[in-house]
Amino acid sequence: MDSISLIRTPIEAELADFKNLFDSSLSSSNALLNSVVSHIRQRSGKMMRPILLLLVARLYGAVRPSTLHAAVSLELLHTASLVHDDVVDESTERRGQLSVNAIFNNKVAVLTGDYLLATSLVHAEQTHSHPIIQLVSSLGQDLADGELLQLSNVSNHSFSESVYFDVIRKKTAALFAACTKAAAFSVGMGEEEAEFARLLGEYIGICFQIKDDIFDYFDSKEIGKPTGNDMLEGKLTLPALYVLNKTKDSVAQEIALKVKEGTATSDEITRLIEYVKENGGIEYAILTMNAYKQKAFDLLASLPDSDVCVALRAYLEYVVDREK
User: Fold this and answer.
1) What's an example GO BP annotation here (predicted)?
2) What pLDDT is attached to residue 1?
């Protein structure tokens, strides 16, 4: 059995219910909106965040209607943030597919993102859970705050790992953490169980983002973005930050500052990428990712063994071993 099948096995029926609810949430009489949504659906991927939410809900009991609405709400919010991010980053491609703004235009992309966000809030309300509604609202703030923090860091001439982790906690890990915490709330768990679930989600989300950042140092059509795409967008991620702080090389730091300012040439970016790889940046990022993976495993080890725990361990292995 492949890893994805193993992960999905305990929640096959629930995942089908989620997909039906998610699809129905996007139906509209607006022809333009339907065209955009149809394009977005083509890159729906493996639905890793809803799967995580459903698995964590199953840790504590049976999936309820509120669980499904929470999963739809958070996946819609995530999708909205991606559509908006592509406009902010002026990206023309996401995961090997043309972005909404590239096919249509920025106005359509922004308005579609707004529609998805509003629909997310509708489903949050349909959980009839004040903690989940509060969670979704706070997540929206965190995602925007993380994006703004990343933009403001461009003018900062330091190469701070702590700022990097602040950004990924708000931009990526917060979403995974919201999924796991909402899962606990949706099946009637209290604050203690919800905080345990939130921490598990945060560790998984940090692993997920570090893995994504490692991808940026290798060219692969499967991954769906060219080598150095983050640097082209002015972003310095964990591998580069480690090497820049370790070596204190003035030439590398000069290129890195040009990356932040958006003035680095493609040749300079290529040189910096090779420098980072030659000086242990990838190995450091992998070690850091594996440390967070172990933290998540330690949390799971405190639970009674079950098919859901087996699936969650497989989920975590998939996050760090995936090739795209």
Assistant:
1) isoprenoid biosynthetic process
2) 63
What are residue 225's phi and psi, to 5 degrees?
-150, 145
- Whether 114 shows a pLDDT value over 90: the answer reads yes
Confidence (pTM): 0.93
- Report the distance separating Cα 94 and Cα 43, nearest Å: 9
Instruction: Give the pair of three-digit tokens for residue 301.
Output: 């080890």
Give me the CATH code for the 3-321 domain, please. 1.10.600.10
pLDDT tens for each residue of 274-315: 999 999 999 999 999 999 999 999 999 999 999 999 999 999
Nearest to 319 by CA among 157, 228, 210: 210
Q: Given this model, what pLDDT does residue 264 score?
A: 94
Question: How many residues are listed for the chain in this entry?
Answer: 324
**Contact of 219 with 266, CB cutoff 8 Å:** no
Instruction: Please state whether 45 falls in left (phi above 0), alpha (psi between -120 and 50) or beta.
Output: left
Helices (H), the chain: 3-8, 12-25, 31-41, 48-60, 65-88, 100-103, 106-125, 130-152, 161-168, 174-186, 191-215, 229-232, 238-247, 250-261, 266-278, 281-301, 307-321
